[in-house]
Amino acid sequence: MKLIIGLSIGIAFGAVLQLGGASSYRKIMGSLLLKDLDIIKLILMAIAVGTVGIYALDLVDMANMSIKPTYVAGIVIAGLIFGVGFAVAGYCPGTCVVAAAEGKTDAMMTVLGGLAGALLYALLYPAFSGLIGVANYGQITFATALGVDGIWIAIPFSAILLILMFKVLKDRYD
Amino acid sequence: MQDEPVISWKVAGAMVGLLLILATALVKPLGVSTQYVVTDAVLLHSAAPALAESNEYLSQYGDKEDWGVGYGWMLVVGMFIGGGISAFITQRFRSREKASLPSMWRSEFGESTPKRMLHAFVGGGLLLFGARLAGGCTSGHIISGISQLTIGSFIFGIAVFASAIFTARSLYRGRLAS
Fold first, then answer.
1. Which of A124, A136, B49, B122 is the most buried (most CB within 10 A)?
2. B80 and A98: CB-CB below 8 Å?
3. Taking 90 as the threshold, does the pLDDT of residue A151 lie above it?
4. What are the pLDDT digits (tens) for A34-70?
5. What is the per-residue burial (b if ≥16 Cβ within 10 Å, else e) of B86-119?
6. Helix H segments across B48-70?
7. Residues 6+ apart with CB under 8 A from B143
8. How far is Cα B50 from Cα A120, in angstroms, rounded to an integer?
9. What residues of chain A, 101 to 140, have a C-beta less than 8 Å from chain B?
């Protein structure tokens, strides 16, 4: 059953990303060059809807959350590496799969590069796993850190994101 | 333009948010990058089983995910199918000769297909190396993680965009100056 749910949600996710332009090199680079902010705003909208929904589910104990551990040093280094890859490829690990499905051969190369990068990480894991222990705060969220129900953070956070999307972030075309 | 999105960022973003809520209610939040390791584990197990067994990182993923047929893997397969279907229906599917060079890339870096392929491959390698070190990517950390108010995901998101914006500006210096 979980497999069918995964497949169905995946089909919808892939289609929405494709229809929304998230698998387009031009749209992604437009956002990273701060010229065309649609993809950044798409992500912020997903978070604004997602965070309120997830913490509403949590109120009735229906959220199957998966909180990733916060190891500050490793995550900062990882984010900096990921960001370089994001701008060089012009895709991210999910959007290159969708773009590959559109027939874009450069995105297929990004998928292959991704498989190689993940394998390289696996082979070098013993050398890097130590980073995971540095400044590791475990599965910490703003809700657990402040000791309040997440919904009380989710609602104002989502409101701030909506203001950002509709009032603050403006496209700067050439 | 063939690249022009069919639906607006508002609609697409809200739909991704709703899918994330649905996924969290039914199974668990969205994530993609783990599946690259799962795929590696499957491939390496058929190519070099001894190496795969002995690798601390690959062995933990392969087993846990039933060798590739878990929920997460089906999600990524679904993304490929869904992206392909919608590209086909909206006639965005690329013909082979136009497929590899985004016009924006061409205007900055020229007509070299191998060069674009190299960028795409190296970029992909950095993406997944970073994603695996962080434990997630745009979907798992930035969308799903921040939506769960995970502090590490906020940190990851800030680091990613700072680095990506800096790198993009360095790559497109010429375009920005003109």
1. B122
2. yes
3. yes
4. 999 999 999 999 999 999 999 999 999 999 999 999 9
5. bbeebebbbeeeebbbbebbeeebeeeeeebbeb
6. 49-54, 56-64
7. A43, A46, A47, A50, B16, B20, B30
8. 17
9. 101-107, 109-123, 125-126, 128-129, 131, 137, 139-140
- For A97-123, the DSSP string reads HHHHHTT-HHHHHHHHHHHHHHHHHHH
Answer for the pair B30, A17: CB distance below 8 angstroms, yes or no. Answer: no
Distance CA A7, CA A88 (A): 30
Contact of B40 with B129, CB cutoff 8 Å:
no
Q: Does A63 touch chain B (CB under 8 A)?
A: yes
| Inter-chain touch A106–B99, beta carbons under 8 Å | yes
One-letter amino acid at A92 equals: C
DSSP-derived 3-state class of residue B147? helix
pLDDT by residue (tens digit) across A77-96? 999 999 999 999 999 999 99
Residues of A in contact with B168 (CB under 8 A): 29, 32-33, 87
Q: Is A28 near chain B, with CB under 8 Å?
A: no
Does A118 sit within 8 Å of B40, measured CB to CB? yes
pLDDT reported for residue A174: 46
Establish if A73 touches chain B: CB-CB under 8 angstroms.
no
Q: Do B27 and A10 touch (CB under 8 A)?
A: no
Alpha-carbon distances of B149 from A55, A138, B73, B154, rounded to whole Å: 9, 14, 25, 8
Question: How far A168 CA lies from chain B's nearest CA (Å)?
Answer: 15
Tell me, yes or no, if A67 comes closer than 8 A to chain B by beta carbon.
yes
Chain B residues in contact with A172 (beta carbon < 8 A): none
ipTM of the complex: 0.96
CB-CB: which of A10, A49, A139 is closest to B78?
A: A10
Q: Please judge whether B130 and A82 are an interchain contact, meaning their C-beta atoms are less than 8 angstroms apart.
A: yes
Are residues B111 and A59 in contact, defined by beta-carbon separation less than 8 angstroms? no
Q: How far is CA A118 from CA A15, A134, B36, B61, in A?
A: 25, 21, 6, 12
Give the single-character DSSP code of B5.
-
